[in-house]
Amino acid sequence: MNRKSTRSYSYQTLPRIEENGRRYCDESYFMPNDETELTRLNIVHQIYLILQEGRLTLAPFTTDSPRILDIGTGPGDWAIEMSAEYPNATIIASDLGVFDSGVAHVSLPNVDFQLADAQSEWTYHEPFDLIHIRGLSGAFNDWNAIYHQAMSHLKPGGFIEVADTDPGGDTITVATGGDDGTPYLQIYAAALRLSGHTSGCPRDLQHLERGALESAGFVDVNVIERTFPIGLWPEDIHEKTLGKMALIALLEGLEAHALRQLTRLAGYTVSGARELCEKVQEEVLAAKKITARVRIVTAQKPNTYAQRRGQVMARAMAKVKILNHKPIGEEEDEDEDDDDYDEEEDDEGEE
Ligand SMILES: C[S@@+](CC[C@H](N)C(=O)[O-])C[C@H]1O[C@@H](n2cnc3c(N)ncnc32)[C@H](O)[C@@H]1O
Q: Where are the transmembrane segments (predicted)?
């Protein structure tokens, strides 16, 4: 692939890599892009919608004709539904590859599906109101670089929204486990984390820490974390439905998340990796209670000069309020950060 180009799907002859019974879009990304994975992503999309109370985005942009970029769009469910909700939007949905029967093949006037590697230089010509990145944990070796590119391709005041789940359940009650009693789900999750670490592309939620966004210059970082059920254990009917969907997504995704990375990076044979997945599956089906975490972060590119000045003033006023309650002599270094911010602001105000 030309490292600087973004091109429309229809003009491409796309590579397909068949490997151990799964299909992948290239040699580097660890998740398959076959029918099974397509179904799993369709279900995960519905889970996000339930967790977000039907909202496609939690970013509080105000224009009804936003320019939107969806990085790693996958089958394109989010982008397509955004295009219906915002008919005046212009949406670029980009990915390394294409899912054969995903909605990305539907031709819509306001969505442009493009092939692009988000780790290469972004070549979009006009800035965006919203950049959306969901389910990309483990895809990048340098999230800071991704966030810096996002920053420079957002309009002042534009939003970034990043969401991901923990690849392994974070609480589990099970009767079985490995030789030392450790739940297989934990062995599995630890192997995924280790192989992510070995590959240089961490598979965790670190990129969703407030500081990760702030150090790239984003402000008003809003971190939302939800714990959701996996399985049929909840008594509440809505939670049970959610738990059932999450169970299907988890079981469908066990092999998808693990096969390539465990065989390439963690010393597993193909049958060894599949055996671990089967043990996790048995354990999950027998478990009394499993939950998992999802984290959704929205953050804003600092706004126009005047608006940013207002934000700085508001913060300064808040500090004055605090200082008024402090004993004299404890307030010397309080404004150092704000001075730096003002200088940066003056530069960015020229955009
Ligand atoms: C787990 S899927 C998530 C798809 C979609 N965002 C969603 O939430 O349904 C991850 C997607 O990111 C794409 N991807 C992985 N690495 C990428 C990269 N470097 N640049 C662009 N897309 C990438 C994959 O091809 C895959 O379609």
A: none
Number of domains composing the chain: 2
Give the residue carrying structure tokens 């394109």. 76
- Whether 342 is in a domain gets the answer yes
SS3 263: helix
Among 39, 56, 77, 96, the mutation site with the greatest number of ligand 1 atoms within 8 A of its Cβ is: 96
Q: What is the pTM of this model?
A: 0.85
Cα–Cα dist 58/161, whole Å: 8
Is it the case that residue 291 has pLDDT exceeding 70? yes
Q: For residues 252 and 124, state if they share a domain.
A: yes
Residue to mutate, 5, 7, 29, ligand 1, most ligand atoms under 8 Å from C-beta: 29
* Same domain, yes or no: 335 and 219: no
Q: State which residues form the domain around 290.
A: 7-301
Please name the helix (run of DSSP H) or strand (run of DSSP E) that holds residue 111, with its range, or none: strand 111-115
Span from the CA of 163 to the centroid of ligand 1 (angstroms): 12
Give me the pLDDT at residue 307, please: 53
